[in-house]
Write a structure and sequence with these properties.
317 residues; mainly alpha; 2 domains; 3-stranded antiparallel sheet; 14 helices; 70% helix; 3% strand
Length: 317
């Protein structure tokens, strides 16, 4: 297979520019993840995820981000293959190289990061686009309408569950239904049947499923999600990333896997930050030291931020 003729410097410049964009995203993602540690039953984090999932500008940026990530990976592998082909015969005698050790591992750490990202997407992003089942949530005002609202309010008025309310209504109806005209009997049966159809949805609106502020109905399974979307027109059921994060990171093997991921990410970023400045020609002997320190600070900040979320959630904080 013959690779297209693109100068290696051009490829390196593109890799650095795309990498710079990803560096900014990582910082943004890390800060957003810190919302998980707030003791507000996920109010801030859920509101953030709702905004990210409903704003069309963010959705467009999300597509751009995935494109940037894939292009960054493809160009990096392309460059590595081209460099390998440029010297098919290795040196007869190995010599010590002054190249930073992180530079030699960039491709391998990048491949490991890609594998870990795929697992991360399977845990979260693939749930969002419907490829993987997960836990979901919906705004209470969206689901509590029509027959669902009628049933939930009637049950709450008597301090009983929607199922108990329907059983009571059907019991009373049986006692005197035959005394009514046929038209009223048919109408009442139809009304009760309509309430019975939305009963599984109405039963979700209970205290243990509501967020602390009462605005979200949570702990919705995949089948319940499909039922809500079928019974409540225009209802937008979203992945409950706060609950899924808390649940997944409570398991040792998942938490440990993510910690290994962040360790690999640390070594990759440790070299990526100053390397991007060098490739773009933005380094200078006067402030190379400052760039080096900024790279260290950025790498430690991002990796420790991600790590803190995993560790503290695992410890139940």
């Amino acid at each position: 297979m013959k690779l297209p003729a693109v100068h290696s410097i051009t490829r390196k410049l593109c890799i650095s520019l795309l990498g710079g964009f990803l560096l900014l995203f990582l910082l943004f993602h890390m800060v957003a993840n810190l919302f998980i540690l707030r003791h507000d039953d996920g109010a801030w984090y859920s509101a953030f995820c709702h905004f990210m999932g409903s704003n069309w500008v963010v959705k467009l940026t999300e597509v751009v981000l995935l494109g940037v990530l894939l292009l960054h990976i493809v160009l990096t592998l392309w460059l590595a293959v081209a460099n390998r082909r440029a010297r098919p015969v290795r040196y007869h005698q190995r010599q010590r190289s002054k190249t930073h050790g992180g530079s030699k591992l960039m491709v391998w750490t990048g491949i490991l990061i890609f594998v870990c990202l795929w697992l991360h997407f399977a845990d979260f992003y693939f749930v969002k686009i419907g490829w993987v089942k997960g836990e979901y949530m919906v705004r209470r005002e969206q689901v509590e309408q029509g027959a669902v609202k009628e049933l939930a309010q009637a049950a709450a008025q008597y301090g009983i569950t929607p199922a108990e309310y329907l059983d009571a209504v059907e019991g009373q109806m049986t006692a005197y239904l035959e005394q009514l005209p046929i038209e009223q009997q048919v109408q009442m049966r139809a009304e009760v049947e309509a309430l019975r159809e939305v009963l599984p949805v109405a039963e979700l609106i209970k205290e243990e499923n509501l967020s602390a502020d009462g605005q979200w109905v949570r702990h919705i399974g995949y089948e319940q999600k499909r039922l809500i979307e079928q019974e409540v027109e225009g209802c937008d059921v979203e992945p409950d990333f706060y609950f899924m994060t808390r649940e997944k990171f409570s398991h040792f093997h998942i938490a440990f896997s993510y910690l290994l991921f962040f360790l690999v990410l640390f070594f990759h970023l440790r070299h990526a930050f100053p390397s991007a400045f060098q490739t773009l020609g933005l380094n200078n002997y006067k402030y190379n030291r400052a760039i080096e320190w900024c790279g260290k600070a950025y790498t430690w900040l991002v990796c420790l931020g991600f790590t803190a979320v995993v560790v503290l959630v695992y410890l139940g904080v």
